[in-house]
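All the exercises in this workshop are built on plain-text protein records. Sequence and backbone structure share a record, each on its own labelled line. The structure tokens are whole numbers drawn from a learned vocabulary of backbone shapes. The record below serves as our worked example for the rest of this section.
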Amino acid sequence: MKIVQLHCHVTMMQNSWLTESIIANPMSVYPEYWEKRSSWYRTMSAGVVEVVLEDGTCGFGFIGGAKGTAAASLIDEQFRDLVLGKSVFDTELIQAQLYRASVFYGRGGLTQCAISGIDIALWDAKGKVLNQPVYNLLGGKTRDRMRSYYTGNDPSALAEFGITDMKVAMPYGPAHGEEGMQKNEEIVALARESVGPNGFIALDLYMAWDVSYTIRMFERLQKYRLAWIEEPVSPDDYKGYREIRRSVNTMVTGGEHEYTLEGFRRLIEEGCVDIVQPDIYRAGGITGLKKIAALAEAHHIKLVCHGVGCPTYHFLISNDPHVTPFCEYLDIYRGAAKEWVLSDDPRPADGWLALTDAPGFGYRLNEKVFRDKTSVAAIW
């Protein structure tokens, strides 16, 4: 079944707690960018790849990175011509060729986000052609539902989804000094109170801390029984990851901003993380994550995808529960637009997330947001 059309639909993302509240990030070292991420990230745009097959079947794939307009340009200028005419089942070939064709300017970042969107769209189309959910193409479900944890800064939302486990986006880093450390502790204390004695608390540090600050902050917070600390330093600081992991008695996780198999090999083989966290919209889609999961399983560490959405959940539910034990629910709608670029976005109920048996990923393009130029919820 040949691919006859490839489009990239783009619309703007709306600001939310993810962009407008104080959340530690790589730019937090500069005072003018403390208050909100939108001050430096500027305009966020959502991109969705659509592939159309010769029988009219359409598949859709979200592009990571929140720079859909830039990814659309890349697809228009180069990638489309390399995909058209190939079989929808040639996902390995297409991914390899797109990577090789962009290696001289890419090797990660925006190029991998675009490649991921294309790959996800192809898997969605394959499922529809075969009239099977994508998880069946990956070997079938290994369980009927997955336990979810909540990512957000509003502990009151836990009851809405019946979740008792929470990952907190920490607001302050080294540039905020002792006062910032105190405020960080207050937030973690509130989270512990909200989840109770048995729920887990994880900290999302979004590349904002350094080795010494992370160790000092952990010493201050360990009484709250942290499940893990996530992405404490720059993605390139493998040495820093190892030093932190040796110095704290909780798990260290990362991988949200790794893009290639080689990057994940280093994270895993060099002993940087206890849980690896690829983002399916950045690290090669289904085709890329299959290889990362094999690497994680061979090294006896767990894989918990960063992010939300049907492709993420289809991938996780098709793996051994020992390797992918639960999923993240990032609350992209709180304090923001309720619209998303794709329909039928699964959300947890009573702490669990379940999937339907609809073909492909079970979603449709939300044509309204592109036709009316409606701003959609933000996702990082």
Q: What stands out?
A: The chain has 14 helices and twelve strands. The radius of gyration is 20 Å. The chain has a mean pLDDT of 95.
